[in-house]
Amino acid sequence: MAASAPTPHGTGFPAEGRCGYYVEKKKRFCRMVVAAGKRFCGEHAGAAEEENARKRILCPLDPKHTVYEDQLAKHLKKCNSREKPKPDFFIQDINAGLKDETEIPEQLVPISFLSEEQMENLIKKLRKASEGLNSTLKDQIMSHPALHDALNDPKNGDSATKHLKQQVDGKHRKKNSVFERLQIDIQHLCLNKIPLLSKEKLPVVGIGKHLCGVATDLALRCLVETYAASCEERNEEPLAKRVKNDKTEKEINTLAKEGNEKNIPEKWTPVAGIVIALCCHHRCDWRHYVGKEYFRALGLGAVEFHYFQRMSSWATCGMQKTSLEASNISTKRKDKQNDGSEEHDDGGYRITDDSAESLPGFLTVDEKKKIGHLCKLLIDQGRINYLQQKGFNPALQYYTDPLVSLENVLLTALPNHSSSPETTA
Predict the structure, then answer these.
(1) Contacts of 412 (CB under 8 A, 6+ apart)
(2) pLDDT > 70: percent of the chain
């Protein structure tokens, strides 16, 4: 859309072809283009002398815009805010998980309102549940050849290089590739009802770039339960399997001699692989979380999960405090509890600087970050356990440098009959 023409300086008239309504709040004329022969745009047409008899009202579908009262019926049929027909692959809450109202308390207080004793108990539970977990992940930092020239361009500074690493989408697209965008919440997406997948019966690879918090759990359930389970129930023989069955014995022997036998899976699976860049664990939700059974096995439940997901933000929120701020920690915490104000960005659990005296029950910046990382690791371990129970071989690894993104952990999963993630390029 063309940019609006500027209002002439030093004149009391609107720009040519623009609305003649003066917006008092902005101290200028409206810059919307008007129809031929009109003085005002549709939004301000009621101000025109010749249109005074027609009344404009708020749209009942979206009160952010107005419409002529006598044209309301016509407008409702084409308003962009109207409810549109649902596609066949929309099934309400199909990937949401079961909702157990008895597990979730009606009201959970913010972290900032917990006593020191309550916080210490939560941290003890976290550390006990995390015992034995491997917090040292393997580096699997790779880049696509399509980016090499741009990344090695001496004209690009650090910021441009970082941006390129973060914005790699679309760089690898081939001319003969088919791309289709589905505008739908993953919570309601039924993959086996998408025409292409239903017709060709192809195995899918789920790729997610920063599926914030709960979206990761919805995506995992969409792939592993909704799609995979439905294909197995129908007992269909997909195209990939038919191709293998059509190979002659001679062809298979030739492949084996070349060392490519591992490329022919012994058992076909609807989901050939999963790759998800994890982030925003503080946006997770107990109802949708796929690792509930893992938490329950550790003696944890909805309450602990709620506070762990809140504390997970400590790993990435940049909590460095000055010595002066640290010296006022005790006073501020008391004021916080007394005035009932909103929760702090850092989760409400105050930090002391390493140079300041460490009070009982308080954490340093580094300790707090470690707690945040433990929360993330425990939540992700529940997802690992879920995938293992569903017949996958999952792994967590670093996919980029923390200087590029603090959210740099990748979740990968392959069917158990495939090569392990550690041996797969």
Answers:
(1) 273, 274, 275, 276, 394, 395, 397, 421
(2) 68
In DSSP terms, which residues pair with 66 in a beta bridge?
A: 58
Q: How big is the chain by its Cα radius of gyration, in Å?
A: 28
CB 231 within 8 A of CB 192: yes
What torsion, rounded to 10 degrees, do the Cα atoms 314, 320, 326, 332 define?
A: -50
Give pLDDT tens digits for 222-250.
999 988 776 766 555 544 444 444 444 44
DSSP label of 189: B
- Looking at residue 52, its pLDDT comes to 58
Return the amino acid letter for 46. G
Structure confidence at residue 275 as a pLDDT band (50, 70, 90): very high
Distances (CA, A) of 111 to 102, 348, 380: 22, 6, 21
Q: Do the Cβ atoms of 289 and 110 come closer than 8 Å?
A: no
Grouping H, G, I as helix, E, B as strand and the rest as coil, residue 415 is: strand
Whole-number Å distance between alpha carbons of 374 and 304: 13
pTM over 0.85? The answer is no
For every residue of 237-249, DSSP letters joined together read --HHHHHHHHS-H
In angstroms, the Cα distances linking 167 to 144, 177, 200 are 12, 20, 31
**Cα 113 from Cα 110, distance rounded (Å):** 6
The structural domains of the chain, with segments of one domain joined by +, span: 22-77, 84-151+184-233+268-319+362-417
pLDDT band, residue 337 (cuts 50/70/90):
very low
Quote the crossing angle between the two packed helices 302-311 and 116-129, to the nearest 10°. 90
- The two beta strands, 56-58 and 363-364, are unpaired
Mean pLDDT of 315-332: 51
Contact present, 228 and 271 (Cβ < 8 Å): yes
DSSP 344: P
Q: Can you say how many angstroms the Cα of residue 157 is from the centroid of all Cα atoms in its chain?
A: 28
